[in-house]
Every structure is written in C-alpha cells, then in structure tokens.
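Q: Could you write out the predicted structure for this multi-component system? I'm mainly interested in how the pieces pack against one another.
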Amino acid sequence: MPNIDSRELILSRIRKAKTMHLPQIPAQPEQNASVFHPITESEATCFKKELELVSGKCEICPTEAVMAKKIHHFITDSAIDKLFCRDNAIIEFLQKNKIPYTNDEAEFTTMQAAITSCEFLVARTGTVVVSSAGNSGRQLMVFPPIHLVIATKKRLVPYLSDAITALQHQYGDNFPSLVSFVSGPSRTADIEKTLVLGAHGPKQLQVFLHNE
Amino acid sequence: MSNQATKFSQAATRIAFDMRHRQTIRFNIAKYDFAVNNGRQRYQSLALAKQRAAYLKRLVLANWDTYLCTFEAKATQNGIQVLWAKDSKEATTYIQQILHDEKAHLLVKSKSMTTEEIMLNECAEALGCESLETDLGEFIVQLAGEKPYHIVTPAMHKSKEDVALLFAEKFQTPLQSTPEQLTNFVRELLRQKYTQADIGVTGANFLIADIGGVALTENEGNGLMSTAFPKVHIVIAGIEKLIPSVNDLGLLWPLLAAHGTGQQITNYNTIFTGPRRKGEADGPEKMIVILLDNARTDLYADAACSESLACIRCGACLNACPVYKTVGGYTYDTTYSGPIGSVITPFLKGFINFGHLSTASSLCGACATVCPVLIPLPQLLLENRRKSVEKNLRPMAEKMLMQGFRLLSSSRMAYDIFPAELKNLAFAPFNFILWGPKRKMPTFASKSFSQRYKQLNSYKK
Ligand code: SF4
C-alpha cells in the first residue's frame, strides 16, 4: 500500500525548492539562560503549589506510614470502597497497610479510583510524568474517575527539560510506547470558556509524595 | 471578483453587524486575553523563548528533507508504519484501506485540524464507519452539523445557552443544563465509545525527529482515551510539524500552552513512539503515521511565504486579529482561518478563490506581535496581495482606481491641476463598489499640501 512515488515526490520538491531559494535561518539566540522563573522554595513545595494551582492535590508525607494513613483518610472521605491497582509493588504496599484494593479486571469499568506510580514529577509546572512501561499501562492514567499517584521525592526534577533528560537516561532512545506529562485533572473550557474538571479523564488527581 | 470573494464580502457584511455573534466572540476572547496575560507572567523572558522557538522551526525548514528522513527511519525502527501522502485524496485512500482491512465500524478521533483538511469524517462515513469527534468543542460542532469555528476553540461561537439548546434537541437533556452537566453528559456517552472503537485517530502537534515520536497536546484526556483502547492508532500530520529533538519540547510545550489557552502548560502532553511494546500492559497493536503534503511543498517553494510553515497552530493570531473578531471564523470558509489561514489558504486552495483573504486585514500587525514563532504575517499578507495583482486577480474597479490614482499622484502638475471637488467626485463611486457604503473613503483636501505650503510661506515673506 505505501506509495514510494509520493515519498520521492515530496522529498524532491523540497530539495528543488531549496536550490531556488535558501531558507533563511536567523542568528541562533542565546541558549543558556532560563526563560522560566527560578524555583525559590523546595522542589516539593513548588510542585505542590503548582499542581494545586491547576486543581490537583498533593500530600507531602514524611514517611511511608504517614502516607498510608493519608490514603486511608482520602478514600474514607471520598467514599471510595477500594482502589483499582495493577502494579505489584503498590499492591504489596496496599496489603501491608490494609488499604482496600482490587486488581480484578472485571471491575475495571466500574472502578471509582485507581492508584499508580509515576516516572517523574516536575516541580516548576506541577507535572506528573507517567508512561506505558509499568504494569499500569496506558489505560490507568486516564480512565479512572479519580487517579492517585504515589512517588518518592527522588522522582522530583526542577523543569520539564530535566524530566526529558531523565527519561533519556532511563530509556536511552528506546522510550516506552507512550509517555505523558500530566498537569492536573482532565479539564475543558470548550463551552463559553467555563472551566469544567473531568472532561474525559480523571476528575481528581491526587499525588502522595513521601521521603523514603 | 471570484465567487468566493463575493461570498466573503456578503458573509462579512452580514455577520459584522450581528450583535449576538459579536457579543459571544468578545466574551470568549476577553476570557482568553485574561488567561494569556496570566500565562505570560509565568515566563522570566518570553521574548527569548519566542526567539528560540522561531530559530528552531526555521532550522527545521532549512533542513526539512533531512529531518523528514530521520523521523521516518527512527519511527519505522520503533514499529510505526510511515505513509507519505502527496494530497488529501491519497491520505483518505490510505485511511479507507486501513478501515477496510480492520473491518472498522467505529473510529474515535481527537481534535486535529489536519483531519479537517482531508475531511476524514466524511471519508470514514462513506465506508459506513462511524467517525466520532471526542474533543468537547468538536463534538458540539459535529452534533450541530457544522465545521470548527476556530482552530483551537472549535465551538467559540456558541454560548452556553446555544449548547444547552442543541443538546436538548438531540439528547433530550434539560434545557437549563449548565456547562458542567453538559460536559458530564458527553463524558459518560463517550466513555462507552472509546472502549468499543476499532480505530483511534489523532493529529500531531510535533513530529519528533530524533526519537521518531509524535507529540500530542490536549486538555481533556480524549486523545489519551482514543489511544488507550482501540487496536489501531492512526496519526495524521502535516509534514511541517517536525522538530529536531525530544529535548525541544521543554521549550515548545509551555510556549504552545501560553499562546493557545494561556495555561502554563496544557494538561496532557503525550509522546507516542509506537504501538504496544513487548511487556507493556496495553496499547494499540498498530500505529500508523500519515505524513501529509497537500500543497505544503508549494508553500515551501515560495521564498517569502515558506516561513509560514513554522506555524505551531496556537491560534493566537486569530484571537488578536480585529478582522477575525469582527467577521468570525466561518466567513473565511476555509479550514485554517484568521491571519495564518489568509496567508496559507491561497497556496492550499488556489489564489483564484482565496487570494482575496490577504485583503481581509488592516495590516495592524497584532498577529505578528503575538506569534510565538515570529512569523511576519502582515508582510506575508502584503506579498500575497502583490501576487494577486500580478496574477491579474483583482477586481477591474480596483485596477481602475489604482491606475487613476497613480496617474494623479505621480505628477505634481496632475495632482494640483484638478480641483479637489472633481477628484472626490471621480473617486466617489469606488466607495460603493470597493469599500462598501458602511465605510468612508478618505477624501482629497481642498488644497494639496504643496499648495498650502507655498501659500503659507508666501504670507511669511
Ligand atoms: S501563525 Fe503564529 S500566532 Fe498564528 S497560529 Fe501560527 S504560531 Fe500561532
């Protein structure tokens, strides 16, 4: 089915145009200075502040035990029966802390909330970087009505470009099939620019950040 | 004048005085302006960010063929099938073949102007495959049987009452539904569709050469949903969407957000580098990228206008344009409207029918001021005006007027010999033929400057 001729045609037209007039490139602008504001507080504080500005929530927990307690509180307050989870390492944590969960795929479409890990957290923009590499896959980062993310502070990076560099470190040029930079719960403003949370993805994004 | 030009004038005259339309657009754009102002504050140096982005996109254009080949090689290595389409007909042929091979009944689609350009919905439906828009704004215009009004905000022309009424008619939802209730209704409706769909179609905000990936920017999560469940992911991307490296996204994502919606960063910025890999929990079995030319190489062959291929489709120039704000998106009758649409459409669809768009500008320069990649849009509009004149596509009356004016103004004698009343009389008809009775052509002063100068100086003596 692929049309080799069109490929050649397109490339040859580009090359021909270049012989007629050389496209202008402006002088290379300065490349080192940051165009963004510096981070003046701790990265964790900055992350929390930024995420909450875009309607997400972040709990900074000194220990894993405190984090477990906060998750307990959260699911009780939100009347969540159990968390959907596909990640074995997280399941172990949930079991240890007696947090109700399920990994039964039959409950996928009716789940109230899911819990996953993440790749990185970007402080400047309040972004959670997730990928298809773990057991959670693509679906769990967008389908659950409420998305809980747990991460250690080691996952924090200052800027977007640092997260991209870190991804390259981790995966070389063999990226997971999908990497998504998620900043807050799903949103839309398509009707009269009125902000509504939970357009198609999660209505709530809750990050639990701990030190261990 | 071509039919299209006449249609444009008539539609513009009608809508410019439609107060309801004007109010809705003002309201929406005012909200956008407010958000963008906040978005700018997130930068320490927005000017430098724009210069870097402008440089980057020019670099791509100067080495376009090389970057395309790098992208193709790397994407293929990632397991993506790359198809080249010289025009929209070839692109739709590819798609119909895929739909046929996959025996597809339902296609879900995230927002993409390139799919509008090739009329993907019509192409799928011709094969009996339902093609469903999933972006809320696109869903609304599809439901209304309309086309997107704006390249970033498709339903900008509808008030919340308009949308509530439309939904009440089509789905019997309560007439007083709030935007929140309407959004929720669509959410529940589409959740069933994503899981049943055979094909997910997205556009691409950037094609990333060094890793052979596709970057998609969205707020709603419909792009992620459309690529998490169906077994095939098709990307339709204009060949100008290339960027050299994944490392450039740290610059470009915030810039696109700041100009598109005024956010610091759009909610979901996703990089796709292929179908489900071995060991991954889910994802499509196939990923296909269709690289669409559709006259982009014609644009490239034009020394001046080739620069417009640097556009990242943020929509800022539309929102800044006084003409867009007055005549609205539909008057253009094109896929891409506003200043950027006026520059590129004559190349995509011909100067004969769309050359007039370059005159739909007061050349105020607002578009160039806001453009994140520093495209000199007013200059390019002037370039296109010149082309229309050279191609002899301007109306006869305009030609007469211009020739008359040249005759008069190129000689001092000629200019001064006719009295102002006579000159005004001679030019008066053009006020009606060319400018329309609602605007007033400037008139000749009773004494020319040189006459007054002489007079004044003689008094002094
Ligand atoms: S021309 Fe510039 S301002 Fe207009 S849509 Fe393209 S990038 Fe945005």
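A: Regarding packing and overall arrangement: Chain A touches chain B through 84 residues (CB under 8 Å).
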